[in-house]
């Protein structure tokens, strides 16, 4: 075969083509190299915003770093509406009629003295500071984006927040979240209270969580839902471990853009120097063994309009300013208590992530998880037993709820379950 002959022009064009190809590959390589660098800069910028300069730092046995930050330097004051805000150091009103005060005082005080946050063993924060769990680079990198760090996933979380009485099964099943809750609606509520026992449920996938909490809800269950939430949770995605942690959450637009967990955005103003949002709770309840519980109260100060939170019998933690909300600027229209898990399994299958203790309600005390002494704060700022309590669960074979009442526990319910089991494939 005769050798191929190329003209000078053809050779020049070929050379140019090779050069262009090399140039494009080089550009793509540079862009790929810049992308992680840009991401890293975004993460570090976000960390700088979140991690304020501490007066003191305490190392927790679980690996957390607790920064004692001056109360006036906390993340809340990054909010433009709070630039000149004068911190309210105590509520004007505290709800009257705490449940059986004299009867449960000794029992509750004993629990308060044994149930602590892990970081307390290595010190406490001084006066005029608040404890903040330091956010690490790996915490932010686990999120879907820097912008979404510390926020609930909108598409999956908003769907199940619909009125239980009119729940659409298709919408519920698509959401990936499952609940076992008690609830009241149909009145104006200025808060809620409950005592719940604390567990360490097993989580199947790192992107799943299990929590037990109170929901203070206002508005419709569409894109304008207002929600204040407080309780305990296990969330490997958020915290990087399987510890049980105290948490709060708020949103004024059904988890779309506003709000966050704990102090991971500007909003909640903390005044307490003893309790760190997002820090581990210890000890936790054990099956057929000691039971440890916490009580949480969230209520509206009707003079200032702010929503306050109390943990235990004396730890008033702080408040959500009323301007954060639309509907909750007035009052709540619904209260929920109970458990929630994320199910990330596809095609109708169920996760084995546990809710509560991982046991069904019928197993009772020492085995199942419970809420007791559930109460609402009425329009006159009184704590009252709720009327017409409803219950809701998407699939009772996976997670269930059973209510009851007696003279010691007032209105109560057991709830939870193991998730996947022979009756819940």
What is the helix tally?
6
> Helicity range of the residues?
10-25%
* Arithmetic mean of pLDDT: 87
Order of helices and strands: HEEHEEHHHEEEEHEEEEEEEEEEEEE
Largest sheet: 9 strands, antiparallel
Compute the number of strand runs.
21
In what range is the share of β-strand residues? Answer: 25-35%
Q: Which stretches of 5+ consecutive residues score pLDDT under 50?
A: 99-113, 156-174
Q: Which structural class fits the helix and strand makeup?
A: alpha+beta
**How many distinct domains?**
1
Question: If you compute it from the alpha carbons, what radius of gyration comes out, rounded to the nearest whole angstrom?
Answer: 25 Å
Distance between the termini: 69 Å
What is the overall shape? globular
What is this structure, in a nutshell?
This protein has 425 residues and is an alpha+beta fold. Helices cover 18% and strands 30% of the residues.
Describe this structure in words.
Helix content is 18%, strand content 30%. A hairpin with an 8-residue loop joins strand 9 and strand 10 (260-261). The strands form 4 sheets. Strands 6, 11, 13, 14, 15, 17, 18, 20 and 21 form a 9-stranded antiparallel β-sheet that branches. It is globular. It has one domain (50-416). The N and C termini lie far apart (69 Å). The longest helix has 43 residues, at 8-50. With 425 residues, the protein is of the alpha+beta class.
């Amino acid at each position: 075969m005769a050798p191929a002959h190329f003209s000078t022009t053809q050779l020049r064009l070929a050379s140019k083509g090779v050069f262009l190809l090399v140039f494009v590959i080089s550009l793509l390589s540079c862009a790929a190299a810049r992308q992680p660098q840009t991401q890293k800069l975004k993460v570090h910028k976000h960390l700088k915003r979140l991690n304020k300069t501490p007066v003191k730092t305490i190392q927790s046995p679980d690996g957390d770093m607790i920064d004692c930050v001056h109360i006036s330097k906390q993340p809340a004051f990054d909010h433009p509406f709070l630039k000149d805000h004068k911190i309210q150091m105590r509520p004007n009103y505290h709800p009257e009629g705490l449940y059986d005060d004299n009867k449960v005082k000794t029992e509750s005080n004993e629990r308060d003295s044994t149930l602590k946050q892990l970081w307390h063993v290595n010190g406490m924060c001084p006066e005029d500071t608040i404890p903040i769990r330091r956010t690490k680079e790996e915490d932010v990198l686990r999120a879907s984006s820097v912008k979404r760090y510390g926020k609930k996933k909108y598409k999956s979380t908003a769907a199940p927040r619909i009125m239980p009485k009119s729940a659409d099964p298709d919408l519920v099943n698509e959401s990936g979240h499952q609940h076992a809750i008690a609830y009241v609606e149909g009145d104006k509520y200025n808060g809620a209270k409950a005592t719940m026992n604390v567990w360490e449920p097993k989580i199947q996938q790192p992107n799943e969580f299990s929590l037990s909490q109170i929901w203070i809800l206002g508005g419709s269950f569409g894109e304008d839902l207002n929600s204040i939430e407080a309780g305990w949770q296990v969330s490997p995605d958020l915290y990087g471990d399987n510890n049980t942690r105290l948490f709060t959450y708020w949103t004024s637009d059904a988890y779309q853009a506003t709000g966050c967990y704990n102090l991971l955005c500007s909003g909640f103003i903390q005044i307490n120097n003893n309790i760190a949002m997002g820090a581990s709770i210890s000890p936790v309840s054990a099956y057929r063994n000691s039971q440890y519980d916490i009580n949480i109260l969230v209520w509206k100060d009707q003079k200032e309009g702010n929503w306050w939170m109390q943990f235990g019998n004396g730890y008033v933690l702080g408040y959500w300013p009323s301007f954060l909300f639309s509907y909750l600027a007035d009052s709540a229209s619904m209260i929920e208590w109970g458990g929630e898990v994320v199910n990330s399994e596809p095609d109708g299958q169920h996760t084995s992530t546990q809710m509560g203790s991982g046991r069904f309600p019928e197993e009772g005390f020492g085995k199942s998880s419970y809420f007791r002494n559930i109460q609402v704060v009425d329009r006159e700022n009184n704590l009252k037993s709720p009327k017409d309590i409803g219950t809701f669960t998407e699939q009772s074979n996976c997670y269930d709820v059973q209510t009851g009442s007696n003279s010691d526990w007032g209105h109560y319910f057991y709830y939870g379950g193991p998730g996947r089991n022979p009756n819940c494939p």
